[in-house]
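Preliminary data (for renewal application), NAP complex.
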Amino acid sequence: MFAAYAATTSSDDPLSGLRLGERPTPEVPAGWARVRLRAASLNHHDLWSLRGVGLPSERLPMILGCDGAGVDEDGNEVVVHAVINDPDWRGDDTLDPKRSLLSERHQGTFADEVIVPRRNLVPKPAELSWAEAACLPTAWLTAYRMLFTQAQLAPGSNVLVQGAGGGVATALIILGRAAGLRVWATSRDEAKRARALELGADQVFASGARLPERVDAVMETVGAATWSHSLRSLRPGGTVVISGATSGPNPDATELNRIFFLQLRVIGSTMGTRDELERLTRFLISTGVRPLVHTVLPLEEARKGFEQMESGDVIGKIVFTR
Ligand SMILES: NC(=O)c1ccc[n+]([C@@H]2O[C@H](COP(=O)([O-])OP(=O)(O)OC[C@H]3O[C@@H](n4cnc5c(N)ncnc54)[C@H](OP(=O)(O)O)[C@@H]3O)[C@@H](O)[C@H]2O)c1
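Predicted structure:
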């Protein structure tokens, strides 16, 4: 079958290891399901994988892609939950110490077919297009858990989203607005700030700019470049939820004094559970909001999508179709 996969990894030149070509069609173990993919979306995770982060060389070649939507062998239209749990794990899917994401240990979704445990299939609502459905399992699910499970933000709360253009960040803006939050957003880029306003942000700011007032919560995926600003932007007792560190994991100022003196809460967040993915799809149907899709490309042209993401010149999600 046709696939986009990592043949090698390189921290300096991640795209050098990307290959487009034939890979073996997978066998389906008992309890697992085969999904014929219709769309799959690109995440920063796929670039990290090509850099070798979370993907050691002994697991290569590895088909990339965490997110997908397609049709199972019984003809059901499904969205694929990307968190693969140990079969004996009970409880919150994201807390399983043996969990992995598709494309870390098991072959990913940038292919004609993917196999996953049957419980990882979530019904795809007819109201969502294939491209929209394929955006949900990583970026949109992560945003949903950050806002509603981890920060537990109530309608009317003021939340700051750092790095407005990203896949997770655009989801945070759109979901936050739909839930009645007052959403502020930062971006390095003026055009992305303008787009964030169109998506429902109440106010936008250049990265690092002083805010008119302190916020209840900050949603962080940028990391080192914005961390200090995030903590300085919080009201006493406020919450920062962090799910990524695109610009690096070691900020110059860790602001430890500020964290204890202002009693800030720092909460990590990773992906979301299958139940949260079902709730997210219902939230989209009931509110009418939809993922922001930047580009749709046939999988054969996946390299273009990876180049766009590496350049950072993206607002929303990049989707590959079959
Ligand atoms: N823990 C999890 O489960 C989980 C799930 C999803 C994503 N993540 C992580 O979250 C991060 C974002 O993922 P994504 O898929 O949304 O990536 P993406 O679409 O590539 O977005 C990255 C965004 O980060 C901002 N950014 C990057 N470098 C920056 C810098 N030096 N200074 C300021 N802003 C910078 C940019 O915003 P502007 O250009 O607008 O400033 C960019 O739009 C990644 O690190 C990813 O690995 C983690």
